Amino acid sequence: MEITTESRAVGAYFKDYALVNSVDYEGIFTLDIGGGTSDYSFWERDKTDINASICCSNRLAGHELLGAQLLRELKRTGAIQTLPEVLRAQPLPAQKS
């Protein structure tokens, strides 16, 4: 199997995962919600192999879901006015030497 996307990498993992192969199932659905994209795939199982039938990626992910919600809440409560002051008060991470 040629691995060209994160979704296909998940399928390659499950193809060789002994626990998955010991269970009777018709297919596997995977969902990987990252910061910038969500990757999902559906893998059908036949008698000898696991084959991808759908592999997709979209931009509905963590930053879009959580970032937009946080911004709306900060604006709604008025807390966005104090955000720069709060961020300035945070200690900087230690520098690696």
For the sheet with most strands, the description reads: 3 strands, antiparallel
> What gap, in angstroms, lies between the N and C termini?
43 Å
**Structural class by helix and strand composition:** alpha+beta
Low-confidence stretches: none
Large-scale geometry: elongated
What share of the residues lie within helices?
25-40%
Mean pLDDT equals 76
* Element order: H for helix, E for strand: HHEEEHH
Instruction: Supply Rg.
Output: 21 Å
Beta strand count: 3
**Proportion of β residues?**
15-25%
Q: Number of helical runs?
A: 4
Strand order of the largest sheet: 1-2-3
Textual characterization of the structure:
- With 97 residues, the protein is α+β, with helices and mostly antiparallel strands.
- The chain has 4 helices and 3 strands.
- It has helices spanning 6-15, 18-21, 62-77, 83-89; strands at residues 27-33, 38-45, 50-58.
- A hairpin with a 4-residue loop joins strand 1 (27-33) and strand 2 (38-45).
- The longest helix has 16 residues, at 62-77.
Primary descriptors:
alpha+beta, 97 residues, three-stranded antiparallel β-sheet
Strand and helix layout:
Blueprint: H1 6-15, H2 18-21, E1 27-33, E2 38-45, E3 50-58, H3 62-77, H4 83-89
Antiparallel strand pairs: 1-2, 2-3
What can be said about this structure in brief?
With 97 residues, the protein is of the alpha+beta class.
